[in-house]
Design brief:
334 residues, alpha/beta, Rossmann fold, 8-stranded mixed β-sheet, globular
């Protein structure tokens, strides 16, 4: 088995809902947004691990927790089989900041409009490395070349407003790669660029994995791009992982009803292929008032009585394949 770079155990992140003075006076109970609600998984060195699911499922919060941009409510985040990042203070985390980087979804908000591209890319080198000015400039030039922003001389002194959206996204990728990180959270890195640019950016991430031995958590709602780049995939819904396994197996033979519904909605490029569309009923429940039992049962076409009463365990159905569903838990027990 490949070396683990992350082992996540029962990770929880609840955000308290702001209360009014009337809530306090009437002693109403505190409410929480249960963004991540007890998930466990591991990420292996040099792999691209994808988290997929609808908006609001907890994917981005999970990514932020792994690199400790958010403090977990509970759980463990074991990094390189040695350090529990979840229990560290900000001062203790400082040596790991260079190793753990992020590619933000919105390139318009991620880049300082007052800085040139040279200054933007040089900033993490100043704070996270001890290189001198000449070495920093050399790394900035190399980073721009790596993301195909050439000739470099035309981009060094431009501001973000002077380049296109696709070029901005490549600058965001370059900023994450410039400090040679061990691990990158790529949060919807191609959602704001056109189709012609997506393959280019995904190719940059794939080359980083291959040449730099970088491990990547790829967060997306787009199953097509997840299938293109990811080695393994985890499907999230309302703060829980519903299915996890090798990408090809999960996408071609989904087991959880939610996974089946997501995949059935993904367009197939071959017009001769007929796929039965699974239409989910109702709306996604509030992450504050989560249904009892399996949180998917109000929308599930195969819901049973036990689904309403008890939450299913995460069941291993095959080697390296896990499913959160009573159908498989009962079958395993039998």
């Amino acid at each position: 088995m490949s070396e683990l770079i992350f082992k996540v155990e029962n990770l929880v992140k609840w955000f308290p809902v702001r209360r009014t003075i009337f809530d306090v006076l009437r002693r109403r109970e505190k409410l929480y947004v249960r963004a991540v609600d007890g998930i466990s998984f591991d990420i292996r060195r040099r792999e691209i691990f994808a988290l997929v699911g609808e908006s609001g499922s907890g994917k981005t919060t999970t990514g932020r927790l792994l690199i400790r941009l958010e403090t977990p409510t509970s759980g463990r985040i074991i990094y390189k089989n040695t350090w529990n990042l979840a229990a560290m203070t900000e001062a203790e985390l400082k040596p790991f900041r260079r190793e753990l980087q992020v590619v933000w979804q919105d390139p318009y908000g991620a880049l300082n409009p007052k800085m040139t591209l040279k200054e933007i890319l040089e900033e993490p080198l100043i704070f996270l490395t001890d290189s001198d000015a000449d070495k920093r400039l050399e790394k900035v030039i190399k980073a721009l070349q790596e993301v195909n922003l050439v000739p470099v001389e035309e981009f060094l002194h431009k501001h973000p407003i002077e380049i296109s959206g696709g070029q901005r996204q490549r600058v965001v990728v370059a900023k994450a790669l410039i400090v040679d990180p061990e691990f990158i959270v790529a949060d919807e890195p191609v959602s704001m660029v056109d189709v012609s640019m997506r393959a280019s950016i995904l190719g940059i991430l794939e080359r980083a994995r291959r040449r730099r031995n970088t491990t990547i958590l790829y967060i997306t709602h787009d199953l097509a791009t997840a299938g293109y780049v990811a080695d393994r995939i985890a499907v999230m819904y309302l703060g829980k992982i519903f299915e996890m396994g090798p990408t090809r197996r999960v996408l071609l033979e989904p087991l959880n009803p939610y996974s089946k519904a997501l995949i059935s909605a993904t367009p197939v490029p071959d017009p001769t292929v007929k796929r039965e569309r699974i239409i989910l009923k109702g709306e996604i429940p509030s992450p504050i008032f989560i249904p009892s039992g399996c949180r998917f049962w109000p929308r599930c076409p195969w819901a049973m009585d036990v689904c309403r009463r008890k939450e299913p365990p995460m069941t291993q159905v095959e080697r390296d394949r896990w499913v959160y569903c009573w159908l498989f838990a009962e079958e395993k027990a039998a």
